[in-house]
Amino acid sequence: MRTPMLAGNWKMNKTIPEAVALAEALAKVEIPAGREAVVCPSFVCLVPVKKALGSSKIQLGCQNMHFEAKGAFTGETSAEMLKSAEVSHVIIGHSERRALFGETDAVVNRKVKAVLAAGLKVILCVGEVLAEREKGVQNDVVKTQLTGGLDGVPAADLARVIIAYEPVWAIGTGKTATPEDADAMHAFIRGTLAALANAQVAEATRILYGGSANDANIDSLMAKPNIDGALIGGAALKPESFTRMIQYKA
Ligand code: PEP
């Protein structure tokens, strides 16, 4: 049994007062039993958002982390700093980090290992760009990202890894992968995890879909057997749409 997860990636949106207002609205939301919800605000908003969430079951995540423990890495944030802000989940390898900040699979792998070594949970993002899908090489691309990102991660640690399949052509574009296409890729990812680790790990690992998921398409996405939740950008910025997504109809 995989616990469904709805995770909001707020990206570089919301000032502290705006983030607090959103968190306060979400804190009032009933999280259905057997589901997890996570919000990932910017670093500067982590502490005030945690406070605003109060006793809500919503967990706190962030969008990036450096792999080094401390020192002369201007502008970076370490695992211990995130732990001291009560972060539980770290998004690693988002396509925007890969495309805009030059993160390679090797860098992603160092970050994944550092998150796990700190006892935190990883949301590892993978996904192909449009040209790769048009060439029909999306499975190869995702397999390379998974194999590189998880290189050297022991099977036991994979219990704290959540995969987010985010076709880059669907992020922020309004173009969602069809539930069938997403489910097929999720099944492929599960097969890849079985080969990298074992069948038990593959069966237990949650695979989220990301890419223009919203309150109108969440029910049909969640109806698919290999889709275990969503990583949500734009639709996570409004309390009404994120709430509706947390409360998707099974
Ligand atoms: C994302 O960037 O993780 C994402 C899925 O964005 P959106 O939902 O806006 O496509």
Q: Can you tell me the CATH class?
A: Alpha Beta
Mean pLDDT, all residues: 97
Instruction: Give the total of domains.
Output: 1
Percent helix range: 40-55%
CATH architecture: Alpha-Beta Barrel
CATH superfamily: Aldolase class I
What is the chain-wise order of helices and strands? EHEHEHEHHEHHEHHEHEH
Question: How does the overall form come out from the CA principal axes?
Answer: globular
**Terminal Cα span:** 15 Å
Q: Enumerate the distinct ligands.
A: phosphoenolpyruvate
Give the strand content: 5-15%
Describe the structure.
The protein has 250 residues and is of the alpha/beta class. The protein has one domain (5-246): TIM Barrel. 40% of the residues lie in helices and 15% in strands. The chain has eleven helices and eight strands. It has helices spanning 16-27, 46-53, 79-84, 95-101, 105-117, 130-135, 138-149, 179-196, 199-204, 218-222, 239-246; strands at residues 5-9, 36-40, 59-62, 89-92, 121-126, 161-165, 207-210, 229-232. Strands 1-2-3-4-5-6-7-8 form an eight-stranded parallel beta barrel, surrounded by five helices. α1 runs parallel beside α2 (46-53), α5 packs across α7 (138-149) and α7 (138-149) packs across α8 (179-196). It is globular and about 45 Å long. The two termini are 15 Å apart. Bound molecules: phosphoenolpyruvate. Phosphoenolpyruvate is lined by residues 9, 166, 171-172, 210-213, 231-235. Phosphoenolpyruvate binds at residues 9, 166, 171-172, 210-213, 231-235.
